[in-house]
Amino acid sequence: MSERPSPISNDVTALRAMIGKRKRGDRLFSFTGAAFIVLSLSVLGALMVKLVFDGTHRLLETHDVRADGQTPGYRDAVGILSAAGPAGTLPAGFEVQGDAIDLRGDSDDMDLAPLVGRLVGLKGDRPHPGNLLMSVVSAEPIEPLPPGETRPGDPDIVGKIIKAPRGHRTAFQLVPEPLRILSGPEVKNLESLAGQRVAAAGRWGGATGTIKASRVELLRNETFFTSGTSKNASEAGIWPGLIGTLLVTTITMLMAVPLGVAAGIYLEEYAPKNRVTAVIEINIANLAGVPSIIWGLLGLGLFIYGLGLGRTSITAGLTLGLLVLPIVIIATREAIRAVPNAIREAAIGLGATQWQTVRYHVIPYSMSGILTGSIIALSRAIGETAPLVCVGAVIFMTGTPGLNSAFTVMPMQIFDWVSRPQREFHANAAAASLILVMVTLALNGSAIYIRYHLRKKIKW
Amino acid sequence: MTQIDTPLNLPAATTIKFERDARTRRGDYVEKLIEIVLFLAGFSSVAITLGIVGMLVWESLPFFRQVGLSKFLLDLQWTPLLGQPHYGIWGLLSGTITTTLVALFVAIPVGTICAIWLSEYCSARLREIIKPVLELLSAVPTVVYGYFALLFVTPILQALLNPVLQTLGWDPLPGFNMLSAGFVMGIMIIPYVASLSEDAMRSVPMALREGSFAMGATRFQTSWNVVVPSALSGITAAYILGVARAIGETMIVAIAAGNMAGFQFNPLREGQTITAYIVGISKGDLPHGSLEYRTIFAAGLTLLVLTLFFNVGGYLIRKRYREAYT
After folding, report:
1. How is chain A split among helix, strand and coil, in percent rounded to 5?
2. Which end of chain A, C or N, has fewer beta carbons within 10 A?
3. A54 or A63: whose pLDDT is higher?
């Protein structure tokens, strides 16, 4: 140990050095602390940037869907129907405008430059790097064929051409636009389709853009928000999850808020100070710390096999209701505890019964705290995944989930998408995560705002 | 005959009865009824706890009867789905312990330093803003953190660590690893550690700090030598509650840590925690009553016992320190 200068000594420089060292240490820590806070918060920033970077494009993209909501298969032409034969008959021919360009045939000397950025299909070998740069959207046929069978016209790769030198020779046949559409019920009344975006099956009629159609179907333009899960990443969306989350959290809140507020009122206003109350109090503190997955097991054992409610939205809502109950109870108790006793004494002094005191004085004054707690509980319920895996949230869902039917929620879809090896699905996960994070941060932000604002406003 | 109507001029038989009207009487019943309803609501939490414990014990009892407690606690392998099944909880527990330790390695230093800074250095105004924003870190859905761990943190760790691992002659960091899952989990529990520690530090009486300042100590010396030791029980409670949080965390490890159960504590490897196992198995369709179905309840019971131990410990320590200065 080095010899330290005695504080009593008259050696002023040594003393100054010691004080300076201590002050530097202080400043260093002040800096470190602030840096750690900034670092922790920057993780949140990095998370948001990553999600925006990976997922935003999925929120903006659209894709074609058949009238029955199914993913369309490959077709010969996609376009806007400009003329159609009489109702009930198949057209002798109709014009296809716009998107469909006849690119088939010998494309050896084709000028690819105008196609840059557009979705095309390629038939042939995979492009040699440098010849034709493509960002491959999908490398597999969207409508799988039986093994060994090929269908003329089906592209081997569908993607966007990023770069194509003018007049470059390629070993590829180009196939028109997103050649994937329909095979469902026939649309009889073609006149009603005039001007609509349709897909047609039939024989391609050459550069004029006319085709002999054997089948025509109306296409719907879908977005990430309006479509269900799909084997094809670019056609998958969060509709079932969105509705499922809405249903499940509604049930959750309907259960947790009344029960939690009632329990909080009992513990603060009615409960005698005895052993039973003490047990309930420790118990609630513990329940708040029970891992979420355990609640899922409770839901599985109690609601599904015990009460026979099945793997439904109701089961999920009740399970999450139990999960967030401690949050609501604790928030309610804190809010009620902040109401000064003078309020209660005044009410009782005027002849109010205990319930009247609670109903007309204590609850209104603690409303903001209860609201804050409920919002926090809601945000927790929206993001919760693990317990819902246990109570059977499904992975693949195209329709809209109902109350008493199979369900899925947004976090479950994210979990599924992120667990898949394909990068395209990761983009979906990022897009859905972005929505989820925005919602939870907005809820938490509003809770913070309410708490902060009312604390400033109410002065006892 | 005129009769002057005075209150005293009453027939002898009349007695004054304070008869409470029907409304008030009904009110009495309602009052009692409300109290009973509220009591039931309050008691529901106890019922829920009993339900959880009862459920886990009831569903896992056949498992323990069939496999045996000694095999469950002493076997080091967890391979319930193989032809030669092993049911040693250590195969999963080792993953839980490893990820939890990594998480604490991140959360304890960062959380404590943040707490000291917030409590001792930061102005009250700034603290009012920073604390809730910091708490947003634990509001992010864990499945989103899972995405972040798998697709952001892991690639960065791979880029940073793989050259080092290569020169050491070790295997490169796999795409699923406990290090990245534990790291992100640590970030998630920073607010718990920081917030609870900061509460503990701020409840240290001002007089102790003033005494230290009067002796010429700097803020850092005061924080480190006076405030932190005084608030140690509260800080410990914060750490313990952080441990409980990390043990129970599910989605981050289920997504980013892989699903290979094995008795090993190397965070650079794939691993499976108790929670990740339950999620992984639940994703499939398990026949009700099968031994595989029972395993998730046995694993859940282990998890509950572990977290209960840490939660009760944290609660008791916190309660004690709260009483220390009030």
Report:
1. 50, 15, 35
2. N
3. A54
Q: Where in chain A are the domains? A: 66-222, 235-457
Chain B from 184 to 243: CB within 8 A of any A CB: 187, 190, 218-221, 223, 241
Residues A193-227 pLDDT 10s: 555 555 554 443 333 333 334 445 566 677 888 88
Statement: residue B298 has pLDDT above 70: yes
Q: What does the CA dihedral A33, A36, A37, A42 come to, rounded to 10 degrees?
A: 160
Q: How many CB atoms lie within 10 A of CB B226?
A: 19
Q: Is A305 on the interface with B (CB under 8 A)?
A: yes
> For residue B240, what is the nearest residue in chain A, using CA coordinates?
A289
Architecture of the domain whose range is A235-457 = Orthogonal Bundle (1.10)
Which of A162-176, B106-120, B193-207 shows the lowest mean pLDDT across its residues? A162-176
Residue of B135, B251, B300 with shortest CB distance to A415: B251
Residue to test with chain A: of B123, B134, B220, most A Cβ within 10 A: B220
Alpha-carbon span A314 to A407, nearest angstrom: 9
By the CB < 8 Å criterion, does A348 face chain B? no
Alpha carbon separation from A76 to A103, A142, A182, A343, B321 (Å, rounded): 12, 14, 11, 77, 76
Q: Compute the distance between CA of residue B92 and CA of residue B79 in angstroms, rounded to an integer.
A: 10
- The token duo for A95 is 């014009």
Coil, strand, or helix at residue A304?
Answer: helix
The residue length of chain B stands at 326
B152 reaches A (C-beta below 8 A): yes
Q: What is the pLDDT of residue A109?
A: 42
Burial of A307 (0-12, 13-18, 19+ CB in 10 A): exposed
Per-domain boundaries in chain B: 69-324
Return the CATH number of the domain spanning residue range B69-324: 1.10.3720.10
Rounded-to-integer distance, Cα A376 and Cα A98, Å: 50
A180 pairs with which residues across the strands? Answer: A74
